[in-house]
Amino acid sequence: MKKIKAGVIGTGFIGPAHIEGLRRLGFVDVVALADINEEVAKQKAELLSIEKYYGDYKDLLNDKDIQVVHICTPNYLHYKIAKEALLAGKHVICEKPLAMSSSEGEELVRIAKEKGLVNAVHFNLRFYPLMHHLKKMIEKGELGKIFAINGSYQQDWLLYETDFNWRLLPEFSGESRAVADIGSHWLDLIEFVTELKVVEVYADFATFYPVRKKPLNPIETYAGKLMSAEDYEDVKITTEDYATVILKFNNGAHGSMTVNQVAAGRKNRLYFEIYGSKKGVSWNSERPNELWIGRRDGSNEILMKDPSLLDAYAREITSYPGGHNEGFPDTIKQMFKKVYTYILEEKYLRGEKPDFPTFEDGYREMLICEAIVKSAKNGCWVMVND
Fold first, then answer.
1. Domains and CATH numbers, the chain
2. Superkingdom of this entry's organism (predicted)?
3. Is the pLDDT score of 41 beyond 70?
4. What does each C-alpha distance from 289 to 87, 126, 277, 281, 328 come to in angstroms?
5. Using alpha carbons only, how large is the chain's radius of gyration in Å?
6. According to the model, what pLDDT value does residue 224 have?
7. What average pLDDT does this structure show over 232-242?
8. Do the beta carbons of residue 35 and residue 55 sit within 8 Å?
């Protein structure tokens, strides 16, 4: 069987997750990785059993064996590397956000189209089987007219003032943190399952720790906490720990989203409720194999992930039978399966529509995020420019 060769740039928390997902496909070889310098790249390559490694990502882009590049670096490098990868003729899968500004994102969309290259943004949470099933429920009108959507994405990994990560610094992550980092997942997922568009936003931001303790030595995301007072320096924080955003949708529905990275006890909980004129639904990413379905004139139910109970569209991304839970790593595998099958079968050469989030989706989320940031600054409703 023909195999596609991939290279991964950036090997912090998410890079190895990409590598694991790719290896589970069976028809992709991860042949190289790149990191901040040759020493780090060599250590990661040995740890992950990858033959080739580069201390400069440009060398990976010049590797003629590599067909697809995964960008898993800090945010400020996404635009630069994605642009160079496209110009080098590589298909690109990029972590979110796609870039640091919508103008950069728009340029990447244009270049990808001009080059005719496959492009994707890693909004993997779409690929829980129940999310694909819910999308079809809504398409078929099972919920009726959607009236209201509300929910949250909450974590506690930045609960203490001694918790620190490059994402806290706007020069590395961008002007927004919580909204851009986890809110973008919530917004993308809601627009995916409902096929509605956010058209106007009103936002309230809070930074609970205006000063945090930065470690004198870097630590990876989720890798651990500081233990000694001598190990840090004070750093001013301007990005948001928390945000609540009131939303208006293009069908007249109203809603709200709260994101919080200092929510004690919430490890990584995306939650939403969607209420229509016939039924309501709710879903919690920490219990991803259960979908609550609510009725006024009948019993409520919990739909368990089971291929025999799901729409055919959802069965395509379901690997295991009922009672065998599928979680976060499986969403990565299923998204990459869609992308790499699209490449392998050369669907992009025939102009077939991708069934995965592309640079256009990444650009869309940047437009929403910029509107949210503007609203928080000015204290007013802001339209989403599209």
1. 4-125+334-357 (3.40.50.720), 128-325+366-378 (3.30.360.10)
2. Bacteria
3. yes
4. 41, 13, 25, 14, 11
5. 21
6. 53
7. 95
8. yes
C-alpha span between 123 and 181 (Å, rounded): 11
Average pLDDT over residues 268-295: 98
pLDDT (0 to 100) of residue 122: 98
Q: Which residues contact 25 (CB under 8 A, 6 or more apart)?
A: 333, 336, 337, 340
CA pair distance 259, 380, nearest whole angstrom = 19
Please report which helix (H) or strand (E) contains residue 59, including its range. Answer: helix 57-61
Reported residue count of the chain is: 386
pLDDT at 227: 52
Q: What is the pLDDT of residue 225?
A: 54
Q: Give the rounded percent of residues in the chain with a pLDDT score beyond 70.
A: 96
Predicted TM-score (pTM) of this structure: 0.94
* Res 120 pLDDT > 70: yes
Which residue, 48, 43, 122, 137, is CA-closest to 78? 122
Rounded CA separation 285/264 (Å): 17
> Mean of the pLDDT values across residues 99-120?
98
Contact 367, 58 (CB under 8 A): no
Please report which helix (H) or strand (E) contains residue 355, including its range: none
Q: How far is CA 268 from CA 48, 168, 288, 297, in A?
A: 25, 17, 12, 34
Whose tokens are 């943190």? That residue is 177
**Torsion-angle region of residue 324: left (phi > 0), alpha (psi -120 to 50) or beta?**
beta
Cα(362)–Cα(106) distance, integer angstroms: 9
* Of 183, 106, 41, 153, the residue nearest 363 (C-alpha): 106
Please name which of 85, 63, 89 lies closest in space to residue 72, comparing C-alpha atoms: 85
| pLDDT score of 232 | 79
- DSSP codes of every residue in 163-182: ---GGGSHHHH-S-SHIIII
The structure tokens listed for 234 are 């004070």
Residue range 27-41: mean pLDDT, rounded: 97
Alpha carbons within 13 A on the beta-carbon side of 265: 0
Helix (H, G, I), strand (E, B) or coil at 211: strand
| pLDDT tier at 230, thresholds 50, 70, 90 | low
Q: Could you tell me if 304 and 290 are in contact, meaning their C-beta atoms sit under 8 angstroms apart?
A: yes
Which token pair is 376? 């928080």
Q: What was the pLDDT predicted at 222?
A: 52
